[in-house]
Amino acid sequence: MEKELVELFEKVKRAADEAAVDGGADSSPEESRCLDVLKQLKKFPVNYQVLVSTQVGKRLRQLTKHPREKIQALASDVVQNWKNIIVRETLKNKNSNGVNGESVKDESAGATANGTTKSQRAESVKVEKVSRVDDVKVERMTSKIEEVVNTESAFAEKKVERVIVLKTEKSSSNVAGAAPPKLGALIYCKDSVRDKVRELLAEALCKVSGEVDEELRDEVNACDPYRVAVQVETAMFEKWGRSNGAQKFKYRSIMFNIKDQNNQDFRRKVLLGKFSPRTITDLAPEDMASEERQKQNEKIKEKALFNSERGAPVQASTDKFKCGRCKKSQHLLSDANAECR
User: Fold this and answer.
1) pLDDT exceeds 50 at position 140
2) Do 35 and 74 meet the contact criterion of CB atoms below 8 Å apart?
3) For 100-116, what is each residue's pLDDT tens digit?
4) CA distances, 18 to each of 115, 176, 254 (Å)
């Protein structure tokens, strides 16, 4: 039983970590898998001894602070159920000990002929005192358990945050094997306008694999075009709002350059993460142009600069002139040419 409980918890933890990293989507397969295993964990038959030996309750407490609200709510429900089991079994054990003590004392009191009523009253008072003491001990034990669990929860929460940061950094640096699992299909947000933008972006990014050379194909295939499409659309929506609003021309600029058949360079850079989703919204049109187009623009600028300089008024490059008589070069301000007069 203990082994099965620990295995279920490990499945929950792995799925929860993956769901926490995938922060750009409203829902994800990782979140659904985590919720399914949490439901199995909730139905799993546990008792005080198993919970104490495995310490799963303390470790599960960290999920009550998970970024996903559904995971957070279900994990809190499971933890509360387990706490109730611990308190209930503790009270049951204490009460059974009190009853045994009472029966022993009643038997010893019945053996005495005189003072039967007094002994029964004394025994009843003792039982009441024992029950009160037991209640106080249970309350102290419960508060102590909660204190330990809260301490473990704070430590585990910091550990989860660090894991999320590390996984996000690895994902942004395109390290093989560190990225979250690829999406099998596009994630929709139930907004027809936004979903259309995601479909167009995903359709364009899926073409990159067939456009690159063999040396880049493995790196491209390791990327997730559906996830990148969702992240780019989310970044544009968070900064500009809906694409049919006042910022529709900014949407069109990015969409045109990503879908442009002659701009494979920008499409590839977006998929490989050369431009992060939030950075894309700050790019100027010339920054999104292909490498060939950027070179052409640079030549046009150089030519325009050259023509503008050539069209300026002619300026003398020297203060000397050649004398028509003696053929000598003389300064304009000198009187050396007086001898030729």
Assistant:
1) yes
2) yes
3) 544 444 444 444 444 55
4) 72, 16, 30
